[in-house]
Amino acid sequence: MQPIDFWYSIGSTYSYLTVMRLPDVARAAGVTFRWRPFNVRYVMTEQNNIPFKDKPVKAAYMWRDIARRAARYGLEPDLPAAYPLQGLELANQVAILGVEEGWVEEYTRAAYQLWFEEDEPAGQEPNLTLALTKVGVDPARALTDARTPRIIDRLAHETAEAMKLGVFGAPTFVVEGEVFWGDDRLEDAIDWALNPSPA
Amino acid sequence: MQPIDFWYSIGSTYSYLTVMRLPDVARAAGVTFRWRPFNVRYVMTEQNNIPFKDKPVKAAYMWRDIARRAARYGLEPDLPAAYPLQGLELANQVAILGVEEGWVEEYTRAAYQLWFEEDEPAGQEPNLTLALTKVGVDPARALTDARTPRIIDRLAHETAEAMKLGVFGAPTFVVEGEVFWGDDRLEDAIDWALNPSPA
């Protein structure tokens, strides 16, 4: 079976839930995921899709909903987390470097843990250095590489690829062209991967 | 146990799923629901919350997602359905009359079935007459009563009440002040009703 593409941005709030529970879910279901960081802010700005800014009622609900869902998953976030992230681009440039070098998953989880559980926003210091150190990567070297045109271009390329697939938010799961949006569609995506059907 | 408040508008797309499956879900879970029509368009306009207009990618996903979810529930909608509804207000004024007279649930289901499965938009003819006839109500009488200031005021009052509770979209379930938004939170709302917890 093909791995399920897990499209996310460090910066997406609901992606916290997926990032933290994905290893357990993958093991239990016997499926694998390919972690694909992209720039969700670019996509949403392009599509005039602004879910929370100037929407205080909906934003308050979002945090409450994440708190309830986190409790179900045994997570203990300290909410609300800083939002929106000022360092979204850099956080995801580092993640792209992590894809190339094989530490994207651990870095992403460390960055979210610091952001959602220890009040250190991702994509800025000390989150960057702490998260990279935690996964055994030299922060100075990685942060230099993550700022190169090659990595910036690759993030843009991945973002364009996501848009081509119909991705408009994060997290999104793509299974053989079928798009599932939201942490709450993870189980549907897995069902689809295990039993493709022409609904 | 108190009934769970089911806030919805005839006009909401995802409410189709809830309206059609709620009787089975209620029976299986041993819970009851109070059907509370309100004007979700008023609330969303007030809150500058515009989910699908001028968002073709997200709108296309919404229909696909509803199709997949409907298949899970054994429903057979003919999608996309007409959207947005021109007769949203009148459709819900009739529903408010149905609350007073005890036929809101059957009317709502008939209106959605005609709209989503037989391409007859709710809130206009022939949907209004067909749905009312199906539930055994004289359409001429009901449509006259549904247009009275008393019913118009009551819909506005219910809409204000929904906003006071923190409702910002439809469908929404409210359990002792706790708000759950979306057909995909119905099970969470039921869990909350059965096992209230301080998440």
Task: Summarize the structure in words.
The structure is a homodimer of 199-residue chains. Chain A has helices at 15-29, 40-46, 56-72, 88-101, 104-117, 127-134, 139-146, 149-165, 186-194; strands at 4-8, 33-37, 172-175, 178-181. With 199 residues, the first copy, chain A, is α+β, with helices and mostly antiparallel strands. The first copy, chain A, has one domain (4-194): Glutaredoxin (3-Layer(aba) Sandwich), CATH 3.40.30. The first copy, chain A, has a four-stranded mixed sheet with strand order 2-1-3-4, with helices on both faces. In chain A, strand 1 (4-8), helix 1 and strand 2 form a beta-alpha-beta unit. In chain A, helix 4 packs antiparallel against helix 5 (104-117), helix 4 (88-101) crosses helix 7 (139-146) and helix 5 (104-117) crosses helix 6 (127-134). The longest helix of chain A has 17 residues, at 56-72. The interface between A and B is medium-sized, with 26 and 26 residues. Chains A, B: The active site is at residue 12. Chains A, B: Residues 4-187 form the DSBA-like thioredoxin domain.
Helix content of chain A: 40-55%
Largest interface, Cβ cutoff 8 Å: A-B, 26 and 26 residues
Report the oligomer.
homodimer
CATH class of chain A: Alpha Beta
The tally of structural domains of chain A comes to: 1
Structural class of the helix and strand makeup of chain A?
Answer: alpha+beta
